Every structure is written in C-alpha cells, then in structure tokens.
C-alpha cells in the first residue's frame, strides 16, 4: 500500500513539474476562485462587525426617582441582571454622572453657569441595561413598565433607539441574506471554473491515459497520481492564497484602518483568529472539488 | 496459443469489421496478417487486447476465453501480451527509461527489479545511450524500438505488432523486422499486422490475408498476394 502510494506520489510530483505551465494555469484558476471567496469572507466579517458595533451602542437608560434608596436600586439591579434577556447592567451614581457631565461640558460656559444656578445635582442615579439581542429590548421594556418597577423609575429613555434597532435588525437580516446569496453565486462560479480547469488539464492527458491502459496499467494505478496531483494543486493554491491575502492586508491596512478604525476591527486579527477554520475549510473544499472533477474527467478516458 | 472461433465484430448500423473469422495460431509461430485498409486487421488486434469486444464468437488466449473479459481483468491480459503500435504510443512526458519502467511499475514490480531489467532490455534494442531522452528527442525508428522494449519488458509469450513499420523508412523497417524475427526465434509468438508487401515477402513466414472482415487465404510460407 505505502509502496504503491509512494510510486503514485512520485508520478504526481513528476507530472506537476513536467507540465509546469499547465500546473501554473490550474493553480492560478484555483487561487482566483479562493481569493474571490475570501473577499466575500472579509466583506461578511466587516459587515457583521459594523452591525454588531451599532447594536452594541443600543441600551436602555433607566433614571431613578431621587428619593429611592441605594438598597432599593441595588435590589432592582439584581432583579434586572437575572433576566435571561439582559446581557449586562451598569449603575451610574448621580455624582459620577455629574462629574462626567461637567467634564464633557467644561468649555460650555452657559451650561456651567446653569449648573451653578441650580446648586443641587440635577441628575438622577441611572442604570444602563444592555440586552442579549436587539429583539429582547421589547421584553425588557415591558418588565420595566410593570407598576412595581415604575414606582422607583423616574423615566427610561429607549424610545429614541427603537427605530434604529428596527432598522439595524432589518439591515442585518438583509446583509446576511445578501451575503448568503452572493456566497452561493460566487461558490457556484468558482466550482464551475475549477471543474472546467481540471477537465482541461485531464483532457491534455487523455492520450497518456489511454496509453497507460494499453500497456496494462489498472484504473486505480492511473487514477491515483492524478488525484494526488489534484491534492497538490489544492495545497499549493491554498498556501499561495494565504500569502497573497496576508500581503494584501499588510499593503491595505492603512486604508482599511481609516475605513474601519471606528469599529476597532482588524482583518489580519480576524483571519489569525479564524485561520484554521477559514483556510482549512477552503483547502478541504478545493481538494474535494479538484479530486471529484479529476475523477469524473479521468473516468471518460479510462474506458480503453 | 491464440484461437479465434467464428469471431464476428459488428458496428451499427451496417458494418461488419470481422465476419465469422476462425484462426488458430500455435505457440512460437510468426504470423503476418495482411489486408487493405478496412479489412479488419486492426480490429483483430483490438480484440486480442480487449480494446474491443466481440459481437459473437470467441477469442481464446492460452486457454483463457477473453470474449467477455471483465474490465478489471483487462490489465492482467495486457501484461501478458506485448503490443507494438504504428504510432509508438509512448508517454511524451516520460524518458525512455521511464516509458519502459512504467509497464513494470504498473504491475507492482520493485524498484530494484526495474533498475536491473530496464537497462538489459535497452541493450537488446540498442538504446542504452538514449536512456534519459524524451520521445520527442528520438527518431521514428528509435521511438519504435522503445515501444518494442516496453512491449517485451514483461517477457510476454505473445507479441502483437500493429503496422510497426508504417511510419518508418526502409533502413529502420529492416531493423525493426530483424528485431521481431530475433524475438520470435527466442520463443515468442509474433503476430505482425501489416500492409507492407516488401516486409511480408521478406519474412517467408505464415501469411493470413483478410478481406472485408473475412479470411481469404492462409499460407504456411506465404507472400503478399492481395
């Protein structure tokens, strides 16, 4: 088995470099297909990050009535925190809020003057609530609107965000659907191009395949080197795609940084974190596609 | 050794390549099959190596009825019959050595056996100097000698030569025919398919003539009579 495998591997490498230009053309087609898929992967990653950033900015601010004691607020916070729809809560004491307010408006004389006029801290204690999903805000608001809770709440501001949430939800759904559709079309094109490239490669070998049959080679003996060569094509193409992508990211990072800076997103980090998943999957896909295409193409010429 | 019994090969819609051919070739014989284009000579060769299947009748080689041979058994059959083709059928991306070694590699011979046998056969066909050349770097005669070396590498009991001198000049033709005679003298049954009058007459061996898919003459020491 290993002896036959080594022999097939030798033939595969021999054929790879003795048909160098044909190998280069096949690999180039594979690289272009893989690159187009990676452009899609990157676009999906960026759009997901943008949507999640917008979603992250959404929260409910609950302002408490001034007379409510800290222990009641603590109890309330505990109760809210335990809700399955709630991701996190953040309590902001009114003094802290005032300090922040002063810091933000330190250059605005009229506001600072107004604060002095009021003398007392006009702000309330507040609780910032973030939900697990944008859909959950509706449920949390219903809970906040229960009479027992309304007793301690002065007001909550969320209504302003409601439209944004709806829009973001719709947009994110559309982006996802569009992404899936585009991926399907891209993948289909890539599959057809690769399938055809492999068919052309095998077609150039059709005479050889029939000669091999005529001198007594079994089908598996003829097929094995071609299938191994298909794996070599996939491996080299995936390796070169990785090199080209990382090269492109490095060259484009200043521009991408400007574009994505506000979202704290770096494509290199994204690819590093998902390296095995992305490229492993791409290699397996390319390999399966190549091997199947080769197998189908060879079968036609093995009937001698 | 080789028996054709009422061998018929029909191509739809209305062509008979062979029509009820019965032929017996004994071990060690040298038989020339002659006939004009379309007489069924090549079909006869294709039936012998299972490149084509009979419509009716049977083909028996060394007791093995290959009329309904399974696709998986075809390589086994072809390893027992050496075949020389008019267009040489060499692998263009393999060297002379590799072309000959391929036939051995295909049946799982060890590297040490290949390293031992291939140079021996290259000496027999006088190509020891061309071991590392590719087919495109050889003359027609040299390419045909590589083809002969490859066909002999399994030490087959039967050698089928389908118009082996069709693309060669007179000098190379003589070389190739001399080589075939020598191979025959060493005990191999040789079946030569040819439409070259000179070659057949020079041999003074058994001649079977085909016409329109039927045997029209079978002479023990024959001449090209068509």
Could you explain how this protein is built, in words?
- The complex is a heterodimer of chains A (304) and B (226).
- Chain A is 76% helix and 8% strand.
- By secondary structure, chain A is of the alpha+beta class.
- Chain A has two domains: 2-54 and 167-301, no CATH class; 59-133, 2-Layer Sandwich (Alpha-Beta Plaits), CATH 3.30.70.3040.
- Chain A has a four-stranded antiparallel β-sheet with strand order 2-3-1-4.
- The longest helix of chain A is centred in the middle third of the chain and has 46 residues, at 159-204.
- The two termini of chain A are 25 Å apart.
- Chain B is of the alpha/beta class.
- Chain B is built from seven helices and ten strands.
- In chain B, β4 and β5 (64-65) form a beta hairpin.
- The two termini of chain B are 27 Å apart.
- The relative contact order of chain B is 0.20.
- The model of chain B has no long low-confidence stretch (mean pLDDT 92).
- Chain A binds chain B through residues 3-4, 7, 14-15, 18-19, 207-208, 211-219, 221, 304, and chain B through 49, 51, 71-72, 74-76, 78-79, 83, 85, 89-94, 102-103, 105-108, 150, 154.
Task: Give a topology summary.
The complex is a heterodimer of chains A (304) and B (226).
Chain A: H1 2-18, H2 20-56, E1 60-64, H3 70-81, E2 86-92, H4 94-104, H5 109-118, E3 126-131, H6 136-144, H7 147-150, E4 153-157, H8 159-204, H9 206-214, H10 219-260, H11 267-273, H12 275-301
Helix pairs in contact in A: 1-2, 1-10, 2-8, 2-10, 8-12, 10-12
Chain B: E1 2-11, E2 15-25, E3 30-34, H1 41-48, E4 56-61, E5 64-65, H2 74-78, E6 81-84, H3 96-105, H4 111-124, H5 140-152, E7 158-162, H6 170-185, E8 189-194, H7 197-203, E9 206-211, E10 214-219
Parallel strand pairs in B: 3-8, 3-9, 6-7, 7-8
Antiparallel strand pairs in B: 1-2, 1-4, 4-5, 9-10
List the secondary-structure elements of chain B in sequence, H or E. Answer: EEEHEEHEHHHEHEHEE
First and last CA, distance of chain A? 25 Å
Structural class of chain B: alpha/beta
Estimate the global geometry of chain A from the Cα principal axes. Answer: elongated
Q: Would you tell me the overall average pLDDT of chain B?
A: 92
CATH superfamily of the domain at 1-76 and 196-226 in chain B: P-loop containing nucleotide triphosphate hydrolases
**CATH fold topology of the domain at 1-76 and 196-226 in chain B:** Rossmann fold
The greatest interface between two protein chains, and residues involved on each side, is: A-B, 20 and 25 residues
Oligomeric state of this protein = heterodimer
User: Pairing-aware structural class of the strands and helices of chain A?
Assistant: alpha+beta
